[in-house]
Amino acid sequence: LAQAFCPFRLNVPRWSSTVVPFGLSNFQSATMVSGEPAAKKQRVEECIHSFPKNKIKVLLLEGVSQKGIQMLRDDGFQVEALKTALTEAELIEKVKDLHILGIRSKTQVTRKVLEASNRLLAISCFCIGTDQVDLNYAQELGIPVFNAPFANTRSVAELIIGNIVGLSRRIGECTMQMHRGAWFKQAVGCYEIRGKTLGVVGYGHIGAQVSVLAESMGMHVIYYDTIPKLPMGNASQVATLDDLLAQSDFVSLHVPKLASTKNMIGKEQFAKMKKGAFFLNASRGNVVVIPDLAAALKSGHIRGAYVDVFPVEPGKNGENLFESELRGCENVLMTPHVGGSTEEAQAKIGEEVAAALLKCVNEGSTHGAVNFPEVDMKMDSNIETHRVLITHYNKPGVMSAINNCFSEVKANICQQFLNTKGSIGYVVVDTDIQTSATVKEKLEKFENVVKVRVLY
User: Which of 7, 51, 46, 6 is nearest to 25 (CA)?
Assistant: First the structure.
């Protein structure tokens, strides 16, 4: 089925945009400037024409898995998939006529990029982290952002366990020695991990999985989190980070990128760790002060470290691109941000995120969006309705005005689902087909409405 859309150009002080279809079949749309409304804006209808699904443009960057690409293509979308990330300038050019943008961890979706978009319906992060996207501004523009919070959990957890063993047996040093032809067999400085204490900082999905795997190998697990968390197995929560550092033979970080976690581990924290302890970080690059870690390693206070993420990472693959104070330090294992980079994880991520995007486009579902009110209302195929999707400011009286709009035209509401998040509200309404166009026309005039879409 073809899609019809009705874009509007707005006379606004900050930005203007055009919006395109949001559904399986026919679709109409309008947008309104975000930010605090001062006066009702002038809308000028530019065009009405059919818009087939094969003209919905999708750009996927950084080598998104073929599974996700194929799912979107099978649904009829026009998909361009690139192996590399794009710079801000390159992305500003690409995003202008784009409907869906898919990235991993390197691409930065800044405010400037979002301002340049005129048709963007959704952004998908084919990874766990979403700090590479300006989430607040995307919310202001009514753009939901999706990710895959669970798909690569096992891959990261296994990598941590493998490197705990690798550090305790000095695998990195042994490997380098043998590559240069040396043979030094010794047991000094090598240990079993059974009976040792692992301290997990951040007991989320990955931290908890690491806890389970470590315990199965005979380790004692303690963890620190900013909120109380239910322990897995025999793990126990400690009251403070200092308590964890003082007790742990291995310290592994699993925290998000927040203002409160920036440089949370530095000279002072390394000094509080047990002498001869090991340190691991596969969370975010800016949570550790790398020069302080290098100093602790060189002094011998920290026996070894594994690091997968760095404050500054190259935007592409190649030789002579990586610089770090950790280069040359003994018993330091490093990988180029590959925690979730397994074929199994990437296939699952591609499947999860593509499925979320399809529900967003085809049904108006925002389930799983990290910056947007989550609404997932089942479509009733037994009755003929139009679905009205309304993004609005979360203010007193707005929903009353929206409902009055339906009442004034004697619209029959078959089902309705509202949710809010921060300054934005999102309501999905299934109504009779005779009144949807009139309702849409009236809602477009509301200064507290950000976007209105009709899906059928």
Answer: 51
Bridge partners (DSSP) of residue 199 are 222, 251
Contact 307, 286 (CB under 8 A): no
Phi, psi of 87 (to 5 degrees): -75, 170
**What percent of the chain is predicted at pLDDT more than 70?**
89
CA 402 to CA 396: how far, in whole Å?
A: 12
Please report the pLDDT score of residue 7 as a whole number.
Answer: 35
Q: For residues 303 and 274, give the distance between their C-alpha atoms in angstroms, rounded to a whole number.
A: 10
Answer yes or no: are the C-beta atoms of 224 and 240 closer than 8 Å.
Answer: yes
At residue 22, φ and ψ (nearest 5 deg) are -135, 50
Picking from 247, 163, 160, the residue whose alpha carbon sits closest to that of residue 207 is 160
How does 336-366 read in b/e, with b if 16+ C-beta sit within 10 Å?
ebebbbbeebbebbbbbbbbbbbbbbbbbbb
Between the alpha carbon of residue 142 and those of residues 108, 366, 373, the distances in Å are 19, 11, 10
Query: DSSP characters for 319-333?
Result: TT----TTTT-TTEE
What letter represents residue 358's amino acid? L
Cα(221)–Cα(202) distance, integer angstroms: 13
Per the listing, tokens 């998040």 go with 421
Note the pLDDT tens digit of each residue in 314-334.
878 899 999 999 999 989 999
**Residue 279's beta-bridge partner residues?**
251, 305
Task: Give the catalytic positions in this structure.
Answer: 284, 313, 337
Enumerate residues 6+ apart whose C-beta is below 8 A from 160: 210, 252, 280, 282, 306
Q: Is the pLDDT of residue 50 over 90?
A: no
pLDDT of residue 232: 95
